[in-house]
Amino acid sequence: MYIKSIAYKLPSRVLDNDQLIEHIRRSNEDVDRKKLETYLTYSRKLLNKTGAKYRYWRAKNESARDLILRAMDEAFDKACINPQEIDVLIYCGVGRGFLEPANSYFYAKLRNLKKVNCFDITDACMSWIRALHMAYLMMKQGEVDKVMIINGEFNMESLSWRVRNLKNLEYSFPAYTIGEVATATILSSNDNEWDFKYLSAPMHADLCTVPLEGYKSFVGENQRIGLNGINGFVSYGNELNDVGFDLVGNLTRKYIGNYHEKQWYFPHTPSETAYVDGCKKLGIPLKKVFLDVYKNCGNLVSGGIPTGLGMAIEQNKLKRGDNIVFFPCSAGMVASLVQTTY
Question: pTM to 2 decimals?
Answer without folding.
Answer: 0.96
